[in-house]
Every structure is written in structure tokens, then in C-alpha cells.
Design goal:
VC0802-like, alpha/beta, Rossmann fold, 41% helix, 6-stranded mixed sheet, elongated, binds magnesium ion, binds adenosine-5'-triphosphate, 13 helices, 9-stranded mixed sheet
């Protein structure tokens, strides 16, 4: 009898994405995430994925924590396998859940039978095992409505499984199943949350960060790399492309009206992001923008920003309140790092009175004084790629 992990797969009825693609991607992602925790056998059958340790040195706690963060999984639990026999299941329940059974006052047994050749119905199996447990543990009383402990029995193709406490999984779709996107990662609260939300919808991400050394510090850069690292349990390994942005900002300050500075700067970010997207085969750009949060996040400013690129700009936070975004950031573990007080390149040369409703023609006129192509090419040439 071996302890293992059972995972329920989500959103299998997907239009356009077939089940096979979904499962293959999910298993590939699971295998990669499990590597640090030992050798596991991973396979899927009938909307369930099985993760079985292959030797005693496997770290099942670590593996379980990794699987809690695997997008595409709607529910999971640690379980023990046993023979497909009612008394073998009863023995497995006693051995595996004995302490829990001794500690609880009320319980029920819930059975599922994927193997229709099994000689008992689910109800008969629950009644049999429940009755025996009721006799074996005098402290226990059956309560089918509000039990302190629910014992789950599953009879599947090759074995039966016993477990308690199934919990919700990370949900979403397996990372990569919807393709790749470039995500603009600043050191703030929003962009890590936005990245997480789009990874949850099945996007593999390539991170891009703009830094303005010496106006922004080495610590600010390290903070962004740390934010990316904190996202990897959810997103898988990430590459952060660090783009030197100082020259562009200085040129904008020299040649363009101050009140347009922020939107002009953001147009350069989008142009460079699109270049990176072409290189890595990405089909969209993700940002942490939220309607009305700051001057550069009005509808007019967003329109002027995205006018320079042809890829869709995905803004998963656009309709969220700051409180809701912070809740996401706390849940995924990036909040505490995001609030460390290092400056971002966006706060360098911030205009005193930024234009709230910029007009496209005005921005284009301001940019006429610039060698856009040369500025973009120089920034792209200076990119440093860091794997986290
Ligand atoms: P965040 O909390 O993500 O920093 P914010 O509310 O501070 O967002 P802005 O600074 O206007 O808003 O940035 C809007 C979005 O632009 C960010 O969410 C991020 O996607 C992108 N962005 C801003 N600064 C940078 C940067 N230095 N590098 C990469 N992307 C950036
Ligand atoms: Mg910011």
C-alpha cells in the first residue's frame, strides 16, 4: 500500500481544445514540477491524474505542495491505493486514516465506482465499510449531512483508492495550452497578479522588465527577478528579459512635451514588447493595467498605448478593485515582495501634470522628432536574459 496523489482534471469539455492536448500538456507540466521531489509515475485516466512515488526517497509533501499550484487541476488529495476488494479497502482505511478515525466524532463514507464490473454498488460499498468502521471505532457516529470526517473510496480500473480531505486545486488551464505571451513585469503589485491570471488561463509567459539604471537601482532589478521567481511554482520556469530603458527616457525628456512623457514612454514599452514577442513566438502582450488606477490608465491613454502594436494587449486586472488585486497578490505570495520600497522606471521623470486624455495625433506629432526605430533597436540589442 503506497501513498500517492490523486488529481481531478478541470475544464475537460473545452471547445477548440481537445482533451488529449489538455492532458498531455498537464502531465508534462506535472512531471517538470515534480522533478525536484524525486521519481514519480504520472498518468491520466478518466479525468483523473495519478502521481505515484517510485521509491521511498520521494518527498511527497513537496510533491503535493507543487501539485496544489498546478493549473488545470480542479481538486486533489493524498490517497492510498489498495486491492479492489471490500475488506482490502476497509483495511486500507484503518491503516491510512486510523488516527483521523480515532480523533473524529462523526463520519460518513462516500464511494465512487469507475469500474462497473466491481461486484458491489457504490451504496453497498459505503454501507459495508461505514458499518464496519462504526463497530470498530466506538467514538464514531455516522452523520451523512455534516460529518467531521468523510472517507472517500474510489474503485478504478487497476486499483482502489482511499482518501480523506480532497481540496480545491489551482483551477484554470495547463500552462502553455493556449500558447505564449509576453508579460510586462514591473516591481509593483499589479503586474505579478496579472501574469498569474493569464498563466492560469493556459498561457506560457515570457517576462519583460524595463529598468533605468542609474535612476533605478540594482536592488530594484533583483526585486523583479525575485517576483518572477515567486511566480514559477505557478507558471513554470520563466525567462526575464531585462531591457535597458534609460536612453529612451532621456531622449523623451529632451525632445518631447513633459505632460505626454508617460504615454510616450509606455508606447516605447509596447513597441519593444512586440519585438520580444516576435522573437519568442508570443501572440499577445499582458500588462497589469487597471481602468482609472493612474493617469496612464484611462481609456484614451490605453488606446494611445496599444496603437503602436498589432498584438492583442491582455489586461486581466482591468475591471478589478485594488483590494481584489491585493487579495490575489497575497494568495500567490508576491505581495510582500511587491511592497518593498524600490523605485520603478515609471516613477523616473514623472510629469507633474500628466495628460489624462491624450490624443493620438498629438503623440505622433511629438514622436516625429525621434528616431523611433533606432531607439527601439538599441534597447532590444541591450537586452539581458535571465532564467529564474
Ligand atoms: P504595477 O503594480 O504592475 O507596477 P502600476 O499600477 O504601478 O502597475 P504602471 O506603473 O502605470 O501601473 O504600469 C502599468 C503596467 O505597465 C504594469 O502593470 C506593467 O505591466 C507595465 N510596466 C510598468 N512599468 C514596467 C517596467 N518597469 N517593466 C515592465 N513593465 C512595466
Ligand atoms: Mg508600477
Amino acid at each position: 500500500m503506497e501513498e500517492m496523489i490523486l488529481l481531478k482534471l478541470g475544464e475537460l469539455v473545452l471547445k477548440g481544445l481537445n482533451r488529449r492536448t489538455f492532458e498531455d500538456r498537464l502531465m508534462g507540466n506535472a512531471r517538470r514540477r515534480l522533478k525536484p521531489f524525486g521519481n514519480f509515475r504520472v498518468y491520466a485516466k478518466q479525468s483523473t491524474m495519478y502521481v505515484e512515488p517510485l521509491d521511498a526517497s520521494c518527498d511527497l509533501d513537496g510533491a503535493y505542495a507543487a501539485m496544489q499550484r498546478l493549473f488545470g487541476v480542479v481538486g486533489l488529495s493524498r490517497a492510498r491505493s489498495c486491492a479492489k476488494d471490500k475488506d482490502a479497502m476497509l483495511a486500507a482505511v484503518q491503516a491510512y486514516l486510523g488516527e483521523r478515525l480515532r480523533g473524529a466524532e462523526t463520519f460518513k463514507v462516500e464511494s465512487k465506482r469507475a469500474d462497473k464490473t466491481f461486484p458491489m454498488t457504490s451504496i453497498q460499498l459505503s454501507q459495508y465499510v461505514g458499518g464496519e468502521l462504526d463497530d470498530l471505532y466506538p467514538n464514531l457516529r455516522v452523520d451523512v449531512h455534516n460529518p467531521a470526517l468523510t472517507v472517500h473510496l474510489e474503485v478504478r480500473e487497476t486499483a482502489a483508492y482511499v482518501h480523506a480531505d480532497p481540496e480545491p486545486g489551482a483551477g484554470g488551464l495547463p500552462v502553455g495550452v493556449n500558447g505564449r505571451a509576453v508579460s510586462l513585469l514591473s516591481g509593483g503589485i499589479d503586474s505579478p497578479a496579472a501574469s498569474w491570471m493569464m498563466a492560469k488561463r493556459g498561457l506560457a509567459l515570457e517576462m519583460v522588465h524595463f529598468f533605468s539604471y542609474p535612476y533605478t537601482s540594482e536592488e530594484a532589478k533583483q526585486k523583479v527577478l525575485e517576483l518572477a521567481r515567486l511566480l514559477t511554482p505557478w507558471c513554470g520556469n520563466l525567462t526575464v528579459q531585462l531591457v535597458p530603458f534609460t536612453a529612451i527616457q532621456e531622449e523623451l525628456r529632451r525632445k518631447c512635451p513633459e505632460e505626454l512623457f508617460t504615454v510616450l514612454m509606455r508606447r516605447f514599452m509596447m513597441r519593444i514588447a512586440e519585438r520580444v514577442a516576435q522573437r519568442v513566438g508570443a501572440g499577445a502582450i499582458v500588462t497589469g493595467e487597471c481602468l482609472g488606477q493612474v493617469a496612464s490608465q484611462t481609456m484614451e491613454a490605453m488606446r494611445c498605448t496599444e496603437a503602436v502594436c498589432s498584438l492583442p494587449v491582455l489586461r486581466p486586472l482591468v475591471g478589478m478593485d485594488k483590494e481584489e488585486i491585493i487579495r490575489v497578490a497575497r494568495k500567490i505570495g508576491t505581495f510582500e515582495t511587491s511592497i518593498l520600497p524600490y523605485e520603478d522606471c515609471c516613477t523616473v521623470f514623472t510629469p507633474r501634470h500628466p495628460r489624462l486624455r491624450p490624443v493620438l495625433g498629438e503623440l505622433e506629432a511629438a514622436e516625429a522628432a525621434l528616431d523611433i526605430e533606432g531607439m527601439v533597436a538599441a534597447a532590444v540589442d541591450g537586452i539581458e536574459r535571465v532564467k529564474v
